[in-house]
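Quick entry between incubations.
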Amino acid sequence: MKNYKISVIKGDGIGPEIVDEAIKVLNSVSKKCDFTLDYKEYLMGGIAIDTTGHPLPQETVDGVLDSDACLFGSIGGEKWDTLPRELRPETGLLKFREEMGVYANLRPAIVYDELVNASTLKPEVIQGCDIMVVRELIGGIYFGQPRANDGFKAYNTMVYTKPEIIRIGKQAFELAMKRDKRVCSVDKANVLEVSQLWRDTMNELSKDYPEVTLSHMYVDNAAMQLVRNPKQFDVIVTGNIFGDILSDTASMVVGSIGLLPSASTGDKTAIYEPIHGSAPDIAGMGIANPIATILSAAMMLRYSLNEIKAADLIEDAIKAVLKDGYRTKDLASFDAKEVLNTTAMGDLIAAYI
Amino acid sequence: MKNYKISVIKGDGIGPEIVDEAIKVLNSVSKKCDFTLDYKEYLMGGIAIDTTGHPLPQETVDGVLDSDACLFGSIGGEKWDTLPRELRPETGLLKFREEMGVYANLRPAIVYDELVNASTLKPEVIQGCDIMVVRELIGGIYFGQPRANDGFKAYNTMVYTKPEIIRIGKQAFELAMKRDKRVCSVDKANVLEVSQLWRDTMNELSKDYPEVTLSHMYVDNAAMQLVRNPKQFDVIVTGNIFGDILSDTASMVVGSIGLLPSASTGDKTAIYEPIHGSAPDIAGMGIANPIATILSAAMMLRYSLNEIKAADLIEDAIKAVLKDGYRTKDLASFDAKEVLNTTAMGDLIAAYI
Ligand SMILES: CC(C)[C@H](C(=O)O)[C@@H](O)C(=O)O
Ligand SMILES: CC(C)[C@H](C(=O)O)[C@@H](O)C(=O)O
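Done. Structure below.
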């Protein structure tokens, strides 16, 4: 029987509650699909600062590197926002991404028929929408050197090299091959040199994928089109900061941020986490929606462990639960038959499997 | 009787048609308000490339500098997209902004009750929405040095100095004083040094405006909040590239891009233009919506010529025309009583004044 080593980072705020539910569901599906999962917990973010004095202990890096995949909750909170930059939870997160070499952040934005009213966008605009945002995650202006702030003048550098663009581009094209075979590359090539290289490289790369249609869009227009007509998109590929902005815009197409998973993959251990934050205001109240984390666990099965059937089972269970009218508090006003707390929702999804 | 010198840049595509209507309305309102306007036309963009070989002739720069304000249509089109970067219409536009020192780009996004259905967002989410986006226009990554692309590695620099941040911040606070007294400054201070300086400087500046409430938002969250709950915003102030993206997102809140004006103001001559592009596909067909340009002319009266009454008259006339059910083709499906062509819409607004 196959056995996988899963590193678990529960993090801060609602992190622990939602990760527990994902583990519950993973255990249920693993029994059904004949594999086992060994979990090991590691510290990161605020709790790591409080416990070890550092947002990303070396033990965490080593432990995650030694695992097959990492299931991640959420980190951060006001409590740690006033610390010096190098000690903040966010700094730990960026360092973690870099250490894991996770250059590709995949964020699916899928509109469930059952929750078509949960968006602020009109149902007819979003129904059937299925977008995959592929965001470059360890380059661009987030990591570019030089960077400085002397209190009078401050700057950052947005930089990409051709190999960096090729590897993220490949991810996008490969994903498109399994989907609707359309890639929209987003840049600001009418203004930025770095975007011109991005665009030229995507054009070159597209020759290796003759079946995929590549289009280009300026980032301002892409932000607009995501609101105007999101259904026009299949795969969107873009750089780090543009992807940060556009994937959040895409999440609003779906509306319910409690449903959105993500995968960060690259050369080493991949990280699976909900796109929502640690929501300290509702931590410990048992009302957090665990579905985004459970869907992230499904992505883990699909992309890191190649347990496709198990991933399908989880996704189908979630669809069934939503269809049968079960909701957590955040979605209570959208055709709810019964409103469940965090644990009950986890139990139910596990049971549906 | 007061007399103002107006430089006019009609540009490419639908530019000439829509600017003609704005001039028609300006002439009508100037008679009523006892001032005169002298117009002088200058070339820019594609038409300037075709006529003079350069997207921004020196004569245009000199002429606009010598005027009280500049009324601008739109530039660009596929025809010129393959020219070398330094000869493209966009390059001319950026150079033009720099020459005019227009550091503040003001983009109001106001939802008209009559067109509350024209957005893809639900009416209840946008009704009554009135946002002013204040975008820094001649700094940041658009103009930062160094910048290069050697075909293997490419980079741009996002840079701001304190004085640059202060002058755009002042614009935002001054505008907020005349509105709901709330400024939301948008940055990515959790990742970027340049954003940290931006945030610190805004905090400092806010001490000079004790009546105004300053808040901060990360750019990814701001993009999300503009879709989730746009009514929470009064004035948004942000840097060049973030403003480029967010103002386009904000325009989708309003929905009808044919209604959105803008002002670019600074030390020298201010520029007034619709936010939409040159729409070559419908140029010369007489179906373009001139309202965004006419509203830009109203902004010109308000901000550059201090003819407040005339500005109010134009804005009221437009509201009345919309209320009475007159629409151009782009808005034909939103409670239209009668659909007018470009000239007829200009005539009607002029007549309502
Ligand atoms: C917390 C922050 C540094 C992070 C980012 O900007 O990448 C977050 O917004 C995200 O999208 O994961
Ligand atoms: C055409 C382009 C250079 C320009 C910009 O990015 O500033 C446009 O998008 C705008 O917003 O006015």
